[in-house]
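DM from R.C. (forwarded with permission)

"hey, sorry to bug you on a friday — could you get me a structure for this? deadline for the figure draft is monday and I only need the backbone to look sensible"
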Amino acid sequence: MGETILFCFVFSSQVLLISWLYPRRVISRGRYVLQNFPPSTHPKLYPYPPESFERWLRNIGRLNLVIFVAGLLIIVGLIPLALRGVRYRPSSARSLLRRNLLIYGLGGIITPFIGIWLVDLLVRLIPGM
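My reply, with the result:
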């Protein structure tokens, strides 16, 4: 039980840092540049119109909110799985290795691509992006 709480705390803190706090710093720095270095006085700083930068900052905020909520939903979905645990089944080392490589090795290569593709589909549904 203690390991489950520790895992949930560590995973949720990573989700919070990666998808909320760090992007907020990027967005605040972008807004600082737009406010303190206007395009009228610093035209070489802006290769694109300033509206595109403002739109980019809004889109980054929306995307990070989607990622943050997805991370929290993953945590909520994993808690019952962690509390239930796994059942011990006696098997040979060879079959256990083959099964774990198939599940975790192949799943660890393919699953992130499917997850990124699904997040991309969700982001496309957000208006204004």
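R.C.: lifesaver. Residues 59 and 128 are 8 Å apart (CA to CA).
me: no worries. The radius of gyration is 21 Å.
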